[in-house]
Amino acid sequence: MADITVLGAGGWGIAIAVLLNNNGHNVTIWSAVPREVEMLKTKRENEISLKGIKISEKIEITDDLNYAVKDKDILVLATASSYIRSTAHRLKGLTKPGQIIINVAKGIEDETFMTMTDIIESEIEDADVTVLSGPSHAEEVGRCLPTTCVVGAKTKETAQYIQNIFSSPVFRVYISPDILGIELGGALKNVIALAAGIADGLGYGDNTKAALITRGITEISRLGIKMGADKLTLYGLSGIGDLIVTCASMHSRNRRAGILIGQGYSMEDAMKEVNMVVEGVYCTKAAVGLARKYEVNMPIIEGVNKILFEGLSAKEAVNELMMRDKTIEHPELLW
Predict the structure, then answer these.
(1) What is the C-alpha end-to-end distance of the chain, expressed in Å?
(2) Active site members
(3) Model's pTM, two decimal places?
(4) DSSP string, 8-32
């Protein structure tokens, strides 16, 4: 049995807390938002982000950060990616040396191009920072539907410890040393999911979706390998696995926002309609910046960026993609 605090009370944070409580651990949920804490205490569910998933009375809920992190075996950082830096900064000086912190947010910081684990390590230098990612919609994890994820850590010992903490008959965990690959797969798939949603909103079909998924993982892998990730990771759970589920499921906020954009909504209005953080919007600029920094060709992600921030219509973006110069699918294959 471990003492664990989940920092962040959105849908994913609640689902993780429910999973860990079901696994027999002592779980605390922390939120920085007093009205959210009050809702969770009185309703025992997040009626906005994860309606219908009840929070056991065994799970403690607090807005006191000092209390939440003191003497904990594990801290799970489950805020939206845009709040990872500010939350990690608040943790500085409160955590013990070697504190295990599991990042479960998916994103890349716009201005610095840093991954979430990079950000946490820059704020809390003596922490043991890890990542858990994969095809894992909170709506299904909260309902105890079979799910698989992967944990990335610097040491096998830490990875196996987390694997044992999270594993259950409904949640299978693999381990990996490739933290960077896991993070890039989890972040960049959100941009491709926006593209998939836009295609759906335009009324395109399964052929289009399959093309976006296939060429999308090609783009993600090109960049990831150039940055030092392993292609095996990007063809695994946190790459192609997460990409498939995010492009195909209506649980995906990114796909839902994309559908609205394809139907003619502005990016701002689509985000308001979804009424939750759409991580792909925040990640798109960073992805384009990384593509240019590492001189990697990423036409789908470039197209999404033009739709979101440069005023290009969705139909024009699709036409640009389809009418690019003809090329070979796999240049490394010889005649």
Answers:
(1) 58
(2) 189
(3) 0.94
(4) --SHHHHHHHHHHHHTT-EEEEE-S
